[in-house]
Amino acid sequence: MHKIPIAFCFDDNLLMPAGVCLTSLLEHANENTFYDIFILHDDKSKFSKSGYLEKLHDQYQNFNITYRNVGNAFEGAFEIRGITVAAYYRLLIPEIIPEYNTIMYHDVDVVFRDDLSKLFLNTDMEGYYMGGVSTPYSDITEYVEKNIGVGISDYIASGNLIINSEEILRDNLIPKFIETAKKSWYFQDMDVINIVCKGRIKYLPPSYCIVGTTAEILSDINQPYFSKEEANYALKYGIIHYNGAKPWKTWCLNFDIWWEYYRKSVFYDPKFYFDYYHNKLDEYDKLPLWKRIKILLRYFKTRL
Q1: Fewest CB atoms within 10 Å of the CB: 113, 191, 206, 220?
Q2: Percent of the chain surpassing pLDDT 70
Q3: What pLDDT is attached to residue 202?
């Protein structure tokens, strides 16, 4: 049995999406994979005592959930773009979850489409603080070079990580994370990680984090960033990260994949499901014909 530690950080507002995220994780677990799940939350969160996520045991048995309270370590930290202070909790994982030397971290606005044990067990993190996916085709090149001091190819997204807790604790990085987080970084925890861990970052394959722009790049057979094998695997099995528009709120790329897992989950509410689609179809019908055609063409071009 492969025991895979994995951490999530969120507040009460993301409880339902977290349930769908965990459903997708467990749906694709191999029979010899056991997920040791840790959920970090603050003093204000109520979900840890609600029993909501424990409903997953009605469908799956190969996991355990442990809740860890982070207290108020980042109280007053900079918030922007609707991203709350909970985003910073991942920086405390090495201290809050001391049971493991290496651990995975994922945001909850993601959908898993494969078992994670192979990637986790085969990724050598010796000498690295963090492992993540870079997006060298990103449109934030100027910001990263000017404010973070690295090239865009060296800048990783922070929503899906492998964390080397042992080396982070050994080199006393937690106080550096907390001190750096006091500044008003536009990309918050992502900037903090790239600044503090600079030069000690392991670059993971694109399948570990597919955002909208990644999906478009991977679909181009002439793209220069990843091998054909990496691109094909990522398109078929990669982790979809809805880092912009959220599928449970509005239209977005691959929104239907998220809803597939919502319908499979123990959290499925028929009224919520049909109300969403009814409202969105009404919105779509009110659009001019040219815009409807444009949406469909772009969707089928980039859908995974």
Answers
A1: 220
A2: 89
A3: 97
CA distances from 260 to 21, 122, 157 (A): 11, 30, 25
Contact 172, 68 (CB under 8 A): no
Q: Which amino acid is at 119?
A: L
Tell me how long the chain is: 304
Do 205 and 226 touch, CB atoms closer than 8 A? yes
Distance CA 257, CA 79 (A): 29
Alpha carbon distance 5, 100 (integer Å): 7
Q: How many helices (H) and strands (E) are present in the chain, helices listed first? A: 12, 9
Q: What domains are defined for the chain?
A: 2-302 (3.90.550.10)
Question: How many Å apart are CA 208 and CA 180, to the nearest integer?
Answer: 26
Predicted confidence (pLDDT) per residue in 3-24, tens digit: 999 999 998 999 999 999 999 9
Chain segment 29-50, per-residue pLDDT in tens? 999 999 999 999 988 889 988 9
CB neighbours of residue 198 within 10 Å: 14
Distance CA 25, CA 207 (A): 14
Distant-in-sequence, close-in-space partners of 135: CB < 8 Å, separation ≥ 6: 152, 155, 157, 211, 213, 214
Supply the pTM of this predicted model.
0.89
Structure tokens at 22: 């965990």
Query: Three-state SS for 242?
Result: coil
Which pLDDT does position 278 carry in this prediction?
A: 80
3-state secondary structure 23-85: HHHHHCCCCCEEEEEEEEECCCCCHHHCCCHHHHHHCCCCEEEEEEECCCCCCCCCCECCECH
What is the DSSP-derived secondary structure letter of residue 110?
E
